[in-house]
Specification:
Blueprint: H1 13-16, E1 31-32, E2 37-42, E3 45-61, E4 77-82, E5 95-96, E6 104-109, H2 117-127, E7 131-143, E8 146-157, E9 176-180, E10 183-187, H3 195-200, H4 205-222, E11 227-236, E12 243-250, H5 266-281, H6 292-298, H7 308-322, H8 329-334
């Protein structure tokens, strides 16, 4: 039996859980770069999409009503309440794709790192049989009243000692350049004749941004030894969203898939073991080769460790899937 029945099995959730603190009433800015916001083409216009995670986990039960006593010793635990469609700030959530069943509750936490919600939710499901589903609630707001200021891309170097000049990124040749140590900007305005401008001829604002973001992503990857990020300089004309959405993703969505190829197989177990060995080989134990995303994928049993136990789960799941099992990774981990 894989589920654990004792409170001690869940007592470390608070230390692992990720949260955003209190959800902001006003989450929109009048001026921002791409950090924390996704900009995309929406029928020729530039649309800003901001994603925020609620500081808790949405759980659905078999009818059992969870009590405060179950969580009173959990570090970081902030409260428990029946599920209600949240409304924050001046805007009601227009589209609600998170539609839990009749017995749904929010388990709230005070603070933490949002990338670890998956680990906390898994721990919760493995601790209590009555928890049938655990999800991470996300709020997305959409604002298509945005402008790309000076058609400029802001380039940040990996550190201040790196000097960027016009020749650093040949792919941006011909664009108007300003920069130096630690960063630079490339602009379509006042650019000379170049292939980029020819490619953008006749495109809408949204299409131009879409094209340049794809190019920026390619350049970031190619020069990741010197470039930390490339972001468009965007102005949002309004602080209120045109529409918004409430959704919930299963805490098992990323489980097991360390190499993000959409499959859970022996290669994921091998990568987990290799990374674990690299971490164990460091003399001071301070080096951690796992990214936050890999930790989330690797820690199937929610014990905050990414180790051979998790690799064994992956291998067993892959073997059963190869033999014809149709169980999802969440169903595999929580079956009795």
């Amino acid at each position: 039996m894989r589920r654990m029945k004792s409170l001690t099995a869940i007592a470390v959730i608070g230390a692992m859980v990720s949260a955003m603190g209190a959800f902001p009433v006003q989450a929109y800015t009048t001026y921002t770069s791409i950090g924390g916001t996704e900009y995309r083409n929406n029928d020729g216009f530039i649309e800003a999409v901001q994603h925020h995670r609620c500081n808790g986990i949405l759980i659905e039960t078999d009818g059992t009503v969870p009590t405060e006593d179950m969580f009173k010793d959990v570090e970081g635990y902030a409260g428990l309440s029946p599920w209600e469609t949240p409304v924050t700030g001046p805007t009601s959530w227009v589209n609600v794709s998170a539609e839990p069943g009749e017995h749904a509750y929010m388990v709230y936490f005070e603070s933490g790192d949002s990338l670890l919600y998956e680990t906390a939710g898994r721990r919760l499901m493995l601790a209590y049989d009555f928890v049938e589903k655990a999800s991470i609630v996300e709020f997305s707001s959409y604002n298509n009243t945005c402008f790309w200021l000076n058609h400029k891309l802001i380039v940040k170097a990996v550190n201040e000692d790196i000097h960027l000049d016009e020749s650093t990124i040949p792919e941006f040749a011909g664009l108007s350049f300003t920069g130096g140590s630690g960063g630079a900007s490339y602009s379509l305005d006042e650019a000379g004749d170049c292939q980029i401008l020819r490619d953008l001829e006749g495109k809408s604002e949204g299409e131009k941004l879409e094209y340049m973001l794809a190019l920026a992503q390619e350049v970031e990857l190619k020069y990741n030894d010197i470039i930390a990020s490339i972001s468009p300089q965007i102005i949002q004309a309004s602080s209120d969203p045109n529409s918004s959405e409430l959704s919930a993703a299963s805490i098992w969505d990323t489980a097991g898939d360390l190499d993000t190829d959409g499959k859970i197989d022996a290669s994921d177990a091998a990568e987990l073991l290799a990374l674990s060995a690299m971490r164990g080989a460091t003399a001071d134990g301070g080096y951690d080769p796992f990214t936050a995303e890999q930790k989330s994928a690797a820690d199937l049993n929610g014990d905050t460790f990414c180790d051979a136990n998790d690799a064994a789960y992956i291998l067993q799941f892959a073997a059963e899937a190869g033999a014809g099992s149709a169980l999802s990774i969440g169903e595999f981990m929580t079956r009795s």
